[in-house]
Structures are given as C-alpha cells and as structure tokens.
Design brief:
Order of helices and strands: EHEHHHHHHHEHHHEE
Protein name: DUF7791 domain-containing protein
Number of domains: 3
Strand content: 5-15%
Helix content: 40-55%
Largest sheet: 3 strands, antiparallel
InterPro entries: DUF7791
Radius of gyration: 24 Å
Organism: Glonium stellatum
Domain DUF7791: 152-254
Structural class: mainly alpha
Strand order of the largest sheet: 3-5-4
C-alpha cells in the first residue's frame, strides 16, 4: 500500500501531541510493515520535519516547479507595455517575472491569482513600477492572499459576492453544483415577487435571451471575484456561446 499525505505542516498541534508525535506515528507504520506500506508526505520546510525525516528521501518541490512557474509568468505578462522609468536601471520585465517566481514558494494557485491581479493593473495602464508595487503589497501566505482579494472586491459587488460564496458553500455540502443559469438569477431574487412575475416558458423569453443572460453571468464571474470563482463545465457550445451545462465553482478547494 502507498499513502500520499499532503500538508503535514497543517496538522493542528495540541498540548499533548505535536509534530514530532505525528512523525513518530507515521514512521511506526512503515517500520511495522516495511515491505507492505510506503508513505509519500509533503510539508513546508519546518525544522522538525527536516530533522526527523530522512534527507536522502527528500525532494524540494520548488526546485521541480520553478521553471514551469517562470514560463507561466512570462506567458501571462507578455504583450503589455512595461517599459521601465528612466531612473529604474536594472529593472525590467524579467525582473518582475523573477520576483513573482521567488515570492510564489512553489504554490501555483498563488501564482495564478497574483498574475491575474497584475494583468488587471496592466490592462488599466500600470507601468513596471506600478506592477512591482502591486506585487509587493500582495501577501505571500495563501490564506492572507484570499483575504486580500476579498477585501479588494469593489464595494458595489460585495453583497453579490458574499451571497454567491454562501450559496456555493451550501451547494458543496449538498454535492450539488451551482449552475451558471441559477447564478444569473441571483439579482432577480431581490424582488420577493420575482417568481410570480417571471414569464412562462415560451411566452416571451427566447433562446437568444437565455444565451445573452449566460454571457453576462460569465462576464460577471470572471470580472467581479478576483479569480476566486470560475466558470467550469462545457463552457462553450458549438457556436461559441455559453452552454447550459456550465456551473460556478471556487477556483480551488482551499478557498
């Protein structure tokens, strides 16, 4: 048997049990059945793990993913005018890419969300020094980044955002997707008589109306929530419009 255990550093220590106790438990499994049980575990580089887990059987994920993260950053940032100011000698687009890679700590989700933020600024005319300032203001810890992104949602979108997050969390408990069409109706529920006033199928709402409604909903998901939500499923039908089978989801299960 081979067991893969992610995030040993996320274990919550108690007064009676700490990281070392957990390590001893894991090692006892392999020692008891050395030929039948293998473990592959991951963690941040805490000293307790480096001290008690064999260095000969250790890989640093950042050494394996750095090139991929760097390529992703280059691809997402290319095509923007980021000419440095005259007094910014030695600072160029490559410097920004390397700063993203260094700060990422091999966390791809962090990179994706940060690149989205940088691209948003560049699309609004940010120069290189603006992007570097924006990058330096973004927390390196993933949970802090989530909070940073939540706080950066425009005030006029906050009510819709919190309502959507709450509905998604509830749907996850039910193992039931929130369809893009359902999401598109959220604004309508501000009117308590919405369902009574809504026209019956075939009495005014056309397929083009539904397609336009789904397109607006997709644009809102992509534009309002700073990358925390995304549209998934068979997003486009054969003619390039949004398909009915699409649904709204958190960008990652850790959100």
């Amino acid at each position: 048997f081979c067991f893969f255990i992610d995030g040993l550093d996320e274990y919550e220590e108690t007064p009676g049990e700490d990281y070392k106790d957990m390590i001893e438990l894991l090692r006892s499994w392999t020692e008891t059945a050395s030929k039948d049980v293998k473990l592959c575990v991951s963690s941040r580089e805490y000293s307790v793990f480096e001290r008690y887990l064999s260095a000969n059987q250790r890989l640093k994920l950042q050494d394996l993913t750095r090139a991929d993260i760097e390529q992703l950053a280059r691809d997402r940032l290319k095509g923007f005018n980021m000419s440095p100011e005259k007094n910014e000698s030695g600072v160029d687009e490559d410097y920004l890419v390397q700063e993203v890679v260094t700060r990422a700590d091999e966390v791809f989700l962090w990179v994706v969300l940060v690149l989205r933020s940088l691209r948003e600024g560049l699309q609004h005319g940010d120069k290189l020094h603006d992007s570097l300032r924006r990058l330096s203001s973004i927390p390196r810890d993933l949970k802090d980044l989530f909070l940073h992104l939540l706080n950066s949602i425009h005030e006029s979108y906050c009510r819709k955002a919190y309502r959507t997050f709450a509905m998604l969390r509830y749907r996850i408990q039910l193992d039931w997707n929130l369809s893009l069409f359902e999401y598109s109706l959220l604004d309508a529920y501000d009117d308590p008589e919405f369902a009574i006033k809504a026209p019956f199928r075939g009495t005014g709402t056309t397929e083009d109306d539904v397609t336009e409604q789904l397109e607006r909903a997709r644009n809102r998901v992509n534009g309002y929530y700073k990358g925390l939500l995304e549209v998934r499923g068979n997003e486009d039908s054969e003619d390039g419009t949004v398909a009915l089978g699409t649904y709204v989801s958190f960008a990652h299960r850790s959100i």
